Amino acid sequence: MQSWLTHHVPVLATTAASVAAVGGVVLWWVFTHRKSAEEKERERRSQLVRHGRIIDGSILDWSEQPDSSDLGTLHYRYYIAGVSYESAQDVTFLKDTLPVDAACLGRPASVRYDPKNPANSIILAETWSGLQYPHPSLVPDAHDSTALSHLPPAVK
Question: Which pTM does this prediction carry?
Answer without folding.
Answer: 0.62
